UniProtKB/TrEMBL annotation:
Pfam families in the cross-refs: Lipase_GDSL_2
Keywords, sorted A to Z: Hydrolase
Transmembrane helix in keyword set: no
Highest taxon, organism lineage: Bacteria
Higher taxonomy: Bacteria, Pseudomonadati, Bacteroidota, Cytophagia, Cytophagales
Name under which the protein is recorded: SGNH/GDSL hydrolase family protein
GO molecular function: phosphatidylcholine lysophospholipase activity
Source organism (scientific name): Runella aurantiaca
Domain SGNH hydrolase-type esterase residues, every copy: 51-225
InterPro entries: Ester_Hydrolysis_Enzymes, SGNH_hydro, SGNH_hydro_sf
Amino acid sequence: MKKRYLFLLVMISLQWTSRKEIADPSSYLSDLKTELTKEWPKNRAINLVFHGHSVPAGYFKTPIVNTLEAYPYQVMKQLKARYPYAVINVINTSIGGESSKGGENRFETEVLVHRPDVIFIDYALNDRGMGLEEARKAWVSMINKAAQKKIKVILLTPSPDQRTDLLDAESALEKHRKQIIDMAKEHNLGLVDSYAFFQKKIQSGEIISSYMSQVNHPNEKGHQLIADGIMTYFK
């Protein structure tokens, strides 16, 4: 009896430990990648929902919205090149100026209603105004609602704000980045660490403004960094 009890404790411990990791990009969307290779009439429509603020919405230099150059549609282009038989719907539910609280409020009526296969969440730039604790509540609420429907979720850390030193470990953006990474680990979700992509550019000696169209909006080249990060889950 004692051995059985110890065995159960070990198994529970191993399961808990395994959950505390970011989902493996090579396997997290394995079933979906199989669906993407199917040909008509055996295939079905794949719905990808991008939920967030102005960056995924496609704002470049306000009020210009360059939809087709923003990362959701750059992802669409790359997916179609990789999976030519697939029927893919990119559904953008992002709203400029919105925080994750607003995104949470309309999550069921404007996101889940599309029956997504994958949901991408990108709100950190605007969440600075509400603080870490309230942002966590909103993100976790959306994560849990998606989990109840068995929907895959990929979290995105923020893209840059040029008023913030991207290498400052104590900046609000860096703290939100770390919180998003923690949530991805806690819930075993996908993660695209956009912030790290731009940090590496600075560390290699590049000027961050060359990736930006406005103080807090990436240009096409900046969006490409994010799109390429997302594509690691589809390869």
